[in-house]
Every structure is written in structure tokens, then in C-alpha cells.
Specification:
Blueprint (H helix, E strand, L loop, with lengths): L4 E2 L2 E4 L7 E2 L12 E11 L3 E2 L7 E3 L6 E4 L3 E2 L2 E2 L3 H14 L25 E2 L1 H6 E2 L2 E2 L2 E3 L3 E2 L6 E6 L10 E4 L1 E3 L11 E8 L3 E11 L1 H10 L2 E4 L2 E4 L3 E2 L10 E13 L4 E5 L3 H6 L7 H10 L2 E6 L5 E2 L3
Parallel strand pairs: 1-26, 7-18, 17-25
Antiparallel strand pairs: 2-16, 3-10, 4-19, 4-23, 5-18, 6-7, 8-9, 11-12, 13-19, 14-19, 15-18, 20-21, 22-23, 23-24
Helix pairs in contact: 1-3
Length: 312
């Protein structure tokens, strides 16, 4: 019987949210703010990426039927849904700021924004990503593959619902540990994209500021290196993250800012992002540095393929 392994994640304690009056609305482009369009490429850097469609299929090749969870598709192509990206990046943005968290045992979440409310206040994450009664100012398009992707069926150990706990959990980027040959009980198949697959998507941020963009760029897992931004650590998206799937790196490739006078997008040098990165608003430096260190790729350590212990 396989020994119980150490949990493959790190915890971030959530502070009491710091709420401020909503300053970015949706009825007009605000002159003192900017609206940004950022195109990024996403590269799978873990052994596999799996984003389940919520269905089951049967593979009958090889004479041995196998039930598996298929990868989500759009028009027949594997796709990374914008909602998956938004959720993963919001989780990092919450941890990197004094924002609320919608789980019991944590500080109370932001109250709903009602039409009759006077000067409603929200935490940083709810102001950008949205909250109850307030649409977020950031939009993620589905990420489409840059070239045809060959999907594979991968056998992984079953996963159970995690216990609720105070704080935010982030899975580390360790090496994938293949399931033992012939494993059947407590294992199942998933359809996954292999390492090296590349996708592209577009992010639009309305009525933002350079400081808010600096905080967002950290939540995209980016750090300043010389004259450019490069991945500081892979972001985890999709399913089977406790099995060390789902690690992706994000790289900016094109930047544009809305020109309200000309009613068109104006292309900006990608180096503009570096200036924003250096002046982040709301950033918790006490979280950024250890998180950047703990979530880097660690190919010399393997992920547990069975049960594991939380040693907090």
C-alpha cells in the first residue's frame, strides 16, 4: 500500500478586507482611467493540463473500454475557457491583496451592491473581478490553441472534496507522478493536453489604473526581468491540480489602450507593462515574495498520486 505523502500545496492567510468606494463604473470611459486590451500566450509547462467538460465518455480502442472525463471543447477544438482563467487569476489577486474570500471561516465577504446604495464599498478583487450586484471590469476570452493539439488519456488517482479551512490554497508545481501499471480501484482516466501546447487569448480591463494593472500583472504570475516581463511561476488552472496537472505560463504579446478621442484602439509598446508592474496598487509584499518562491517549477520533486497529509 502506498504511503501517505505530504500535501502538494501552500497556504496563504487571508487578512481582513480593505474596502474602498467603487471608482470604476461601466456607463462611460472615465478620462482619468485607461481601458486596456492585452493579448497573451499560454504555454502548458506541467506534464499535462486537464479542464473537464463535465461529461463522461467511453474509449473503446484497444479492446478494453475505458471511461474518461473529456477535455472541454469549442467547435471541436480543445479550449481553455475564459471563466477558468478568470477564476485562477482572481484567486491569486485575492491572496496578493487585502481582499475577501467567499468561504466559511474567513472574514465576511463584501456585501451586495444594490441600486439604491450610496457610495458602495468593495475590496480590490471584487472591484476588478466583480461581486454580487456589480459586474467586474475585466473580461477573459476563451484561449484557443495556436496549432492542432493531440490529446491523451491519462490515469490519475481519485480526488476528494477538500476540507474547508481558513485561507487560500495554491498547489505547487511539482513533477507528475504516473499511476502504477494496472491500477483500477481509486483511479480514473482524464483527457489531457500534453506539455508544450500553446494557446492564445485576450484580456480586456475597463476603466483601470496603472497601479491596478501592476497588481494584476503579478496575479498573472509575471515578474520583471531586465527590459521585459517573464513568468515568475506557473499558474494552476483546470482539474487534477493536486496531481500536479494544470501548470501554465502566461506571456504578454500585444498591448493596446482605448483612445476615446479617436474611438479606436492604440497599440502601445509591450514595455509599458514593465512600468506598471513596478508600481502595483494593493500588493501584499509579504505574500508575493514567498508565493513566487514556493510556486516555481520543481522538477526534482514529484506529486503524490494517492492520499496526502496536510501538515499545517
Amino acid at each position: 500500500m502506498e504511503q501517505e505523502a505530504q500535501a502538494p500545496f501552500v497556504w496563504v492567510e487571508i487578512r481582513n478586507p480593505q474596502r474602498s468606494e467603487i471608482s470604476g463604473w461601466h456607463d462611460r470611459f472615465q478620462g482619468e482611467r485607461i481601458t486596456v486590451r492585452l493579448d497573451v500566450e499560454i504555454k502548458v509547462v506541467s506534464e499535462y493540463l486537464h479542464i473537464g467538460s463535465g461529461m463522461l465518455r467511453v474509449d473503446e480502442t484497444g479492446g478494453h473500454p475505458r471511461t474518461y472525463i473529456p477535455f472541454v471543447r469549442r467547435n471541436g477544438q480543445p479550449v481553455i475557457p475564459g471563466s477558468s482563467l478568470k477564476g485562477a487569476i482572481r484567486a491569486l489577486a485575492e491572496a496578493l491583496s487585502a481582499s475577501c474570500l467567499l468561504f466559511p471561516g474567513n472574514p465576511p465577504p463584501c456585501p451586495p451592491v444594490r441600486p439604491e446604495a450610496h457610495s458602495p464599498h468593495l475590496c480590490p478583487a471584487c472591484q476588478l473581478f466583480g461581486g454580487v450586484g456589480y459586474r467586474g471590469r475585466i473580461l477573459f476570452e476563451d484561449a484557443m490553441p495556436l496549432k492542432p493539439v493531440s490529446l491523451r488519456l491519462v490515469l490519475i488517482g481519485d480526488l476528494w472534496q477538500p476540507r474547508r479551512s481558513r485561507g487560500r490554497k495554491f498547489y505547487r508545481n511539482l513533477a507528475f507522478h504516473p499511476a502504477p501499471e494496472g491500477a483500477a480501484r481509486n483511479f480514473h482516466y482524464v483527457e489531457a493536453v500534453p506539455r508544450g501546447a500553446r494557446f492564445r487569448t485576450r484580456i480586456r480591463v475597463e476603466n483601470t489604473t496603472s497601479g491596478e494593472m501592476g497588481w494584476l500583472l503579478r496575479a498573472l504570475g509575471l515578474e520583471a526581468r531586465a527590459q521585459e516581463l517573464a513568468p515568475a511561476f506557473p499558474i494552476k488552472i483546470g482539474g487534477a491540480r493536486p496531481r500536479c496537472m494544470g501548470g501554465v505560463e502566461i506571456r504578454p504579446v500585444e498591448l493596446a489602450i482605448w483612445d476615446s478621442a479617436r474611438l479606436s484602439w492604440r497599440t502601445e509598446p509591450i514595455g509599458t507593462l514593465g512600468a506598471w508592474w513596478h508600481q502595483p496598487q494593493w500588493l501584499r509584499e509579504d505574500v508575493w515574495d514567498p508565493l513566487r518562491r514556493e510556486l516555481r517549477m520543481r522538477g526534482d520533486e514529484t506529486c503524490p498520486r494517492g492520499p496526502y497529509r496536510d501538515l499545517r
